[in-house]
Amino acid sequence: MSKIEDGRRRAVVEHVLPQVDGGRFPIKRTVGEQVLVEASVFGDGHDAIAAAVRYRDLGSGPSGSGPSERGTSGRGTSGSGARERDSGPVWREVRMHRPRPREAPDHWEAAFEVDTLGRWEYTVIAWVDHFETWRRDLKKRIAAEQDLTVPLQVGAALVEAASDRAQAAHVKGGIVQSGEAALLMDWAKRLRRDLPLADRGELGLDEELDRLMARYPDHSLASVYERTLEVVVDPPIARFGAWYEMFPRSCGPAGQHGTLKDCEERLPYVASMNFDILYLPPIHPIGREFRKGPNNTLTPGPEDPGSPWAIGAAEGGHTSIHPQLGTLADFRSLVKKASEHGLAIALDIAFQCAPDHPWVSEHPEWFIWRPDGTVQYAENPPKKYQDIYPLNFESENWQGLWDALKDVFLYWSEQGVHVFRVDNPHTKAFPFWEWVIAEVKRVYPETVFLSEAFTRPPVMHRLAKAGFTQSYNYFPWRNTKWELTTYLTELTAESGREYFRPNLWPNTPDILPEYLQIGGRPAFASRLVLAATLGASYGIYGPAFELCEWRPREPGSEEYLDSEKYQVRQWDLERPDSLRDLIARVNQIRRDNPALHSDWSLRFHEIDNEQLIAYSKRTPDGENALLMVVSLDPHYVQSGWLELPLEDFDLDLHHPYQMHDLLSGARYLWSGSRNYVEIDPHALPAHIFRLRRHVRTERDFDYFL
Questions:
Q1: Which of 180, 218, 423, 633 is catalytic?
Q2: Does an H or E element contain 612, and which?
Q3: Which of 452, 564, 599, 633 is catalytic?
Q4: Is position 265 annotated as part of the catalytic site?
Q5: Please, which pLDDT band fits residue 83 given cuts at 50, 70 and 90?
Q6: Is residue 592 among the annotated active site residues?
Q7: From 224, 281, 287, 389, which residue has the greatest number of CB atoms within 10 Å?
Q8: Quick check: helix, strand or coil at residue 164?
Q9: Average pLDDT over the chain, rounded to whole?
Q10: At what angle do helices 207-215 and 149-171 cross, to 10 degrees?
Q11: Strand, helix or coil at 146?
Q12: At a CB cut-off of 8 Å and minimum separation 6, what does 178 contact?
């Protein structure tokens, strides 16, 4: 027979959500967000059951950090008598409620807010609520005109016990309002006084008494959910931000290798487009052995710079800066100046080595050696990367390797970098990522890790579970209405959203999708709006994107002709066909409208044209609501009738409402649920409508808010 800890615990807690893989991995939130916890809670017999979400910030001290009422659903409790799992940061509680007591009587939920960075814990507790049982039955006794003498004595004893718990909480330093223990004791005495029974009965049903009793429940026989679950809380930039990727070596004057100082001079240009993060490909020394030339040729010239992802040479490795880019002081200056322009610097971290990286000679055990005495270079047959040596995560000295890689992150964190784009993490061991991300965030909890893993869905999701803050995804290859609707619904409305945060990129230095190759400037504009409004986080690789670089290396390839990966490029940033102004406008719209700051409110809407896609986002209070209509056809004018569910937007069928196009500035008066839209992709390939509701003032003037 299994051991029973205490057979008097009669409440049952099951099916707690959210949790990932049975609590094996934490869910994710950003500072200021809520965690809505749901559970199935019930008990034997007919006694009333109560439940609460218990939560704590693992970074807070044992004195706690705020009253229990910080929970945002239900009634707060002090939790004086419940058993603790362990010592440490103080648990706080928020009472759960049943949002649909008739349809789902055993479904309970409550929410709490996470307001500091780092790891939090939560669980659910439940107990038989003898006071609520007594109060429920008292109502029935009063209605049946039964004798209340004994029931009132029972109630008085329950209130006296709560008074004792309130006093104990006060003595232990809990958050207790002044005099509540005495107030409860006085209430117990009044229930026993020689007053008319009807008056004492009404006294027992008083709402103020119910509120006080809820603050001091009897947790002595509470059942605690079998697992303690975790939340990783990240900075807001993990949830919402616009990224701009740029090669520093292409920032210099014509015919010259750019420097970090040149990159610094490019900051106003990037900031003028209202980006939040400037992401730089690797800035380290580039290997000379087996260096690649233009368009990935194996025969480079003496002046060809090679690929930045072939990291390491005689000048140093992953904690060194390419001499032609500048010095560490130059880099620190760039980080500082970027911050002054409202930009965070993100660095590319690629854990691989050029053949002449110092680690190859200093730590040969970190690499795979072939029978002929050479090191195994990277390859994905038929592709070969002779200029890159992968690291061996099955090395006998794996712990030394892990420590060295962790030190790379910590080194750049010390230089002020707290955003990292990680190259090909799916080719490194999952346990390593789980360990190193936790180790870095333990020191720098504000750190953001973007996973560049275009691979199978289970692998991408495992990396997100292991700790990656954001993830690249399949957006570059989702082009039709069905593909976009299905995929974005999966990312934003299914269970994976608890840990997998998508970052949408229409292009990267490795990916020039066919749609951009054949669609011209309207295709770039359309994909910009889609990425920036479907996703709260998105990025572009520029200046290739705003200058609509469309030329592939050869037909059928997604590689750029004359790719910056292998050579220095100069860009004419003042070209009249640049999308710079449109990008700036879209990013400003993103900043101005909180509806676009999150993914979870995304909803798609019916429109009777397969070349038009319609979707909306809105804030929880509905005050900020945006409707996007985007043409997927970069060549021809498209039109259609859009169906808008009025009830979802709190709109009246009998009153008009205004749709303000934030891209063009135009305003349209709509009425009813069915309205006409038309898009010319050569003008603007999309509408970003802000919904403004109709109101009528006392003076009978019409306004739209």
A1: 423
A2: strand 612-618
A3: 452
A4: no
A5: very low
A6: no
A7: 389
A8: helix
A9: 92
A10: 40
A11: coil
A12: none
